[in-house]
């Protein structure tokens, strides 16, 4: 197991201790994950009323909305199997639902326009209703925005997704999550109800150092929005999964799709957004994916940085209080004390025909460079560094498919003296007269006055 040094460990532990003390958190567990392994973990406080016990990596806390991400993985698995399309209206799979115009993708990304909370009593603090009753209560009043118009977080939407999973899989959503996600990832300590040892959920009085025990229930049809309990050990494995260590549960490309921004919630220069079942945030040049979680008596958050194969998480038994910057600070401490070593560069083999393609190309008068990537991939981008740049992967028919950027999903074809990128023609010389398009536009000249 990878471990941080003593100085780093003390700095991380001190930051956690400051959070527990100053924010008055009954107990908190945190961990840092690198390259799929726990690099550091620490706990502070007491998990129950006096005397209580210290938290450990095996102590359960409620995950809250981190549950949503695990439900989303099952939905994406079903998409990959061809059981559904993300563009399907949810009503296709839940006939008669009076909120069925929203698509599966919109429910995953909280852009379906549904009301934030279900048409029940305060669902987080009361026993849940069954799916049939929940669906029967829905009506036009529970659609607050045109589907796709805006980001509007909806716990109700994930209640519908849980029922979608149940109907297409033929088993309860929880069983599908357990069999398809938790067990393959080795997350045996993640359960729908608490098991010993677990922390007691508390509210901390805002003006006195006293506690109030919070309720815990089976939330029925709303369980997919926040039912699960877990441990720091299991959540560390989940952080590694989100960072890219899929364990065969999901195709790497599908996980990357989940991490792509589907919507943002704070304008053009976004720092927070949502993908397909995963929250997104940006900090200090990092693009992080994961999820926050909140249920009565509990808070939890997990963030993963796929580019650095790093994850960070905490679990706490307090209804409120943990600062948003805690996990960012832990990442910053790790980067300051023990920055990740870049991978060693090693030379590789190259197909001579592909090697001959590399170098300078022109889109009209604009110069581009074509680079050869591992596994016969190609990267095309402007010499200036700004503009339309994309990577491409080879296809069985001799073409290349765009992976990202402007040309994501588009086809690149290689001709004898030009590149054809979805009708755009790139030539070795600016406006090569021998190119099919725009070929023969005239000669370069100096205008006369």
UniProtKB/TrEMBL annotation:
<dbReference type="InterPro" id="IPR050491">
    <property type="entry name" value="AmpC-like"/>
</dbReference>
<dbReference type="Pfam" id="PF00144">
    <property type="entry name" value="Beta-lactamase"/>
</dbReference>
<feature type="domain" description="Beta-lactamase-related">
    <location>
        <begin position="18"/>
        <end position="321"/>
    </location>
</feature>
<dbReference type="InterPro" id="IPR056008">
    <property type="entry name" value="DUF7586"/>
</dbReference>
<feature type="domain" description="DUF7586">
    <location>
        <begin position="351"/>
        <end position="428"/>
    </location>
</feature>
<dbReference type="GO" id="GO:0016787">
    <property type="term" value="F:hydrolase activity"/>
</dbReference>
<dbReference type="Pfam" id="PF24491">
    <property type="entry name" value="DUF7586"/>
</dbReference>
<keyword id="KW-0378">Hydrolase</keyword>
<protein>
    <submittedName>
        <fullName>Serine hydrolase domain-containing protein</fullName>
        <ecNumber>3.-.-.-</ecNumber>
    </submittedName>
</protein>
<dbReference type="InterPro" id="IPR001466">
    <property type="entry name" value="Beta-lactam-related"/>
</dbReference>
């Amino acid at each position: 197991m990878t471990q941080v040094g003593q100085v780093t460990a003390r700095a991380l532990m001190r930051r956690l201790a400051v959070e527990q003390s100053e924010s008055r958190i009954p107990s908190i567990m945190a961990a840092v994950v690198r390259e799929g392994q726990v690099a550091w973990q620490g706990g502070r406080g007491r998990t129950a009323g006096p005397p209580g016990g210290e938290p450990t990596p095996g102590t359960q806390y409620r995950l809250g909305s981190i549950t949503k991400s695990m439900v989303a993985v099952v939905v994406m698995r079903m998409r990959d199997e061809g059981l559904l399309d993300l563009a399907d209206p949810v009503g296709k799979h839940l006939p008669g639902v009076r909120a069925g115009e929203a698509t599966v993708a919109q429910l995953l990304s909280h852009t379906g326009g549904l009301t934030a909370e279900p048409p029940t009593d305060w669902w987080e603090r009361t026993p849940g209703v069954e799916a049939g009753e929940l669906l029967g209560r829905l009506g036009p009043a529970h659609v607050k925005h045109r589907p796709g118009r805006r980001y509007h977080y909806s716990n109700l939407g994930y209640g519908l997704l849980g029922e979608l999973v149940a109907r297409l899989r033929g088993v309860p959503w929880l069983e599908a999550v357990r069999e398809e996600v938790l067990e393959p990832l080795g997350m045996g300590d993640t359960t729908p109800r608490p098991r010993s040892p677990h922390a007691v959920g508390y509210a901390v009085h805002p003006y006195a150092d006293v506690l109030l025990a919070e309720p815990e229930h089976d939330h029925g049809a709303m369980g997919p929005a926040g039912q699960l309990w877990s441990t720091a050990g299991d959540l560390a494995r989940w952080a590694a999964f989100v960072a890219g260590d899929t364990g065969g549960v999901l195709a790497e490309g599908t996980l990357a799709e989940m991490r792509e921004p589907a919507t943002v919630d704070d304008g053009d220069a976004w720092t927070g957004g949502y993908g397909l079942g995963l929250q997104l945030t940006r900090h200090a040049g990092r693009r992080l994916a994961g999820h926050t979680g909140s249920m009565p008596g509990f808070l939890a958050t997990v963030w993963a940085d796929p580019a650095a194969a790093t994850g960070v998480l905490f679990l706490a038994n307090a209804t409120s209080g943990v600062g948003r910057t805690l996990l960012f600070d832990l990442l910053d401490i790790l980067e300051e004390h023990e920055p990740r070593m870049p991978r060693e560069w090693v030379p590789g083999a190259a197909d001579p025909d592909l090697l001959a393609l590399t170098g300078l190309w022109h889109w009209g008068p604009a110069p581009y460079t074509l680079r050869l990537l591992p596994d016969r991939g190609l990267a095309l981008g402007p010499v200036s560094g700004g503009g339309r740049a994309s990577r491409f992967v080879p296809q069985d028919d001799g073409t290349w498919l765009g992976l990202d950027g402007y040309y994501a999903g588009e086809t690149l074809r290689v001709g004898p003296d030009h590149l054809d990128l979805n009708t755009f023609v790139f030539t070795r010389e600016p406006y090569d007269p021998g190119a099919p398009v725009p070929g023969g536009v005239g000669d370069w000249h100096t205008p006369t006055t």
